[in-house]
């Protein structure tokens, strides 16, 4: 007995408050199990109840209710995050915001949406109106706009538009966790306290994001005998300003062998670069590939865009998903290679680890600079070995954003001082997704300190 069910069920009605074990288990989980480290630590975490508000007013009521009873609140969009972001570490309520799914306006160059809108639905609507998303994660069919901004970073389109911090969020409506929750309208640099915050500094109910003019996209695969040729082609294409693109993803063999639905169209033993480029650039792409002794294989014409399984379904962290289907012992890292030394870094890693580490890259232009980002696959042996590999990557200048932690700062979000200050202001009792952000004050001042491990 937790004591507040009756009051909450009077507030919400029975249908939108779930207390049964099956629902609580299902909705207390995200994709943390990609990490054997997180799997061990998070498997048994469980909310006391799931509650699904239908509008902003109910969100505010629920936050006030939780504040009054000092109940921790963890928000959930679609629950596709990989770091246990949406897993409640200290029980309490999971606030399922997938019902706030209205597209409010699509104007010239922007969309204002409720946080629970699925990015796939938004992209479809925007394209009907001659526009499209600038950036989206490979999970876009399921993922929510609020979940992407609060828990993601970048994805398809980031080769042109950068990641979430590159002006790809224009405004957000945020609710605070107080006796009377405040409604804040946040824009400009102030958004940095809320982008990738795991719902720790405030709850986002509405969001305005920029849109790009609609383009027609051709998807193609370029094959190369060596991975080095494949990544050098990727770099050349990334730098080629006259070719518009959404995706450049070089994969070393045997990663392409994991892509079962593409088995018939991918060259055996070859490195593959998965591409989305503007319709009409095919000849240019082919010539560029030729310069690196490559050849274009499988092509999905622009008319087929989104009508069949797309190539982006094999890139970003979807690569890990396909690898896991073939070999359940595989896990992954998040790595930032140096733009001017990455070929040497690849050589060093392959020499040291061979097939224990398999590489693919997603080229990104962030802060105006091109960088070869990677989600390396790792054959998992032990946590010790995993952190030894991480140590080696770092020793040769490859930045690691550790995906095996739920702590914001350790995961590569970097300095979180400003977020901590904002949290203190917006969430004085430390009730929002407790345990995800380090705070000396949380440990002392709240019942819900970070309990790592
Ligand atoms: P959730 O998982 O529900 O939530 C994410 C975090 O945000 C949680 O901490 C949650 O508490 C918080 N949150 C959710 N909604 C709100 C809100 N309204 N207000 C405040 N906090 C909120 N990510 C990328 O960035 N790029 C990728 O290419 C990518 N590829 C992926 C591929 C696979 C196969 C998988 C499993 C994951 C991938 N991800 C990727 C991670 C994830 O899918 C995305 O970040 C996605 O956008 C998260 O959206 P969601 O609705 O599922 O969020």
TrEMBL record:
Question: Which SUPFAM superfamilies does this chain map to?
Answer: FAD-binding/transporter-associated domain-like, FAD-linked oxidases, C-terminal domain
Q: Is the ATP-binding keyword given for this protein?
A: no
Q: Which domain of life is it from?
A: Bacteria
One GO biological process term is: lactate catabolic process
- Per UniProt, residues of the FAD-binding PCMH-type domain are 43-214
Q: Name one GO molecular function term.
A: FAD binding
Q: Which UniProt keywords apply?
A: FAD, Flavoprotein, Oxidoreductase
Keyword Flavoprotein set for record: yes
Query: What's a Pfam family in this record?
Result: FAD_binding_4
Q: Region labeled Disordered — which residues?
A: 417-453
User: What protein does this entry describe?
Assistant: FAD-binding oxidoreductase
């Amino acid at each position: 007995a937790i004591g507040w069910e009756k009051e909450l069920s009077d507030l919400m009605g029975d249908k939108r408050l779930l207390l049964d074990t099956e629902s609580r288990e299902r909705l207390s989980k995200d994709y943390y199990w990609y990490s054997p480290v997180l799997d061990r630590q998070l498997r048994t975490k469980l909310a006391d109840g799931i509650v699904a508000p239908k509008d902003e007013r109910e969100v505010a009521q629920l936050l006030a209710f939780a504040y009054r009873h000092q109940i921790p609140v963890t928000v959930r969009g679609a629950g596709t995050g990989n770091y246990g972001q949406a897993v409640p570490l200290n029980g309490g309520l999971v606030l399922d915001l997938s019902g706030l799914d209205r597209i409010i306006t699509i104007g010239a160059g922007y969309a204002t949406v409720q946080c629970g809108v699925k990015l796939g639905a938004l992209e479809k609507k925007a394209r009907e109106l001659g526009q499209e998303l600038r950036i989206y994660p490979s999970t876009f069919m399921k993922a929510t706009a609020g979940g992407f901004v609060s828990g993601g970073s970048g994805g398809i389109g980031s080769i042109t538009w950068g990641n979430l911090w590159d002006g790809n969020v224009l405004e957000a409506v945020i609710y605070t966790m107080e006796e009377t929750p405040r409604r804040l309208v946040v824009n400009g640099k102030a958004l940095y306290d809320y982008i990738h915050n795991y719902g720790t500094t405030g709850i986002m109910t509405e969001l305005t994001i920029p849109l790009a003019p609609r383009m027609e996209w051709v998807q193609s695969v370029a094959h190369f005998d060596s991975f080095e040729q494949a990544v050098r082609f990727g770099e050349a294409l990334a730098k080629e300003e006259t070719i518009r693109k959404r995706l450049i993803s070089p994969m070393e063999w045997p990663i392409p062998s994991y892509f079962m639905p593409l088995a018939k169209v991918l060259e055996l033993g070859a490195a593959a670069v998965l591409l989305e480029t503007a319709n009409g650039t095919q000849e240019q792409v082919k010539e560029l590939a030729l310069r690196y002794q490559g050849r274009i294989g499988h092509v999905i014409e622009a008319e087929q865009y989104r009508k069949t399984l797309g190539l982006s379904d094999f890139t970003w962290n979807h690569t890990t998903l396909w690898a896991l289907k073939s070999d359940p012992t595989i896990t992954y890292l998040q790595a930032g290679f140096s733009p001017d030394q990455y070929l040497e870094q690849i050589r060093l890693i392959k020499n040291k680890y061979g097939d224990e580490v398999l590489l693919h890259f997603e080229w990104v232009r962030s802060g105006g600079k091109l960088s070869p980002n990677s989600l390396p696959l790792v054959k998992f042996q032990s946590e010790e070995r995993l952190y030894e590999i991480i140590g080696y990557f770092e020793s040769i200048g490859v930045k690691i954003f550790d995906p095996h932690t739920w702590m914001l700062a350790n995961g590569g979000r970097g300095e979180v001082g400003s977020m901590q200050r904002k949290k203190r202001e917006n969430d004085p009792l430390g009730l929002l997704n407790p345990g995800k952000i380090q705070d000396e004050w949380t440990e002392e001042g709240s019942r819900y300190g970070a309990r790592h491990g």
